[in-house]
Amino acid sequence: MEAGLSNWQKVCFVPTKADTMVSLFRRWLKKYADDKVDWGTNIYGTLTPIPPREQLMDRYWTHVVNCSSCTEAYKRLNALQIFLQVMSIALVAIMAAAKHMAISSVARYTLAVAAILCFVGSKWLSHFIYKNFHFQDYNHSFK
């Protein structure tokens, strides 16, 4: 305190790389706040309510929109999800239309299995996209 705010480097010894951020913060504080901090003594009213976890940990608006790689991956995975849904519906439609035609039961079962796999794949992909590009809850106590 006797040295003053502008002479903090003469009083404090910060020799390691771990102290670099402290030095940079003090330099920033001097440049933009003239070494003065308003610690909130003039705050009136109440704080804003805490937003829900999904809004706090939203990846889409905080990262994916601004990252070209993630945006491209997001678009391609969504296109794949839609393709799988369309294929699932198309295979069921083919199976229904072919019911009256002469196709073997093996071909009918193959179409049914393919339709189910497309549907399950689209549901799994939907969960994957949401978890990786929108929101994944994180609890430090479980990691």
From TrEMBL:
InterPro entries: Cholesterol_7-desaturase
GO MF annotation, one: oxidoreductase activity
Subcellular location as annotated: Membrane
Domain of life: Eukaryota
Swiss-Prot/TrEMBL keywords: Membrane, Oxidoreductase, Transmembrane, Transmembrane helix
GO cellular component, one term: membrane
UniProt KW Transmembrane keyword: yes
Transmembrane segments: 82-103, 109-130
The protein, known as: Pheophorbide a oxygenase
Organism, as annotated: Helianthus annuus (Common sunflower)
Lineage: Eukaryota, Viridiplantae, Streptophyta, Embryophyta, Tracheophyta
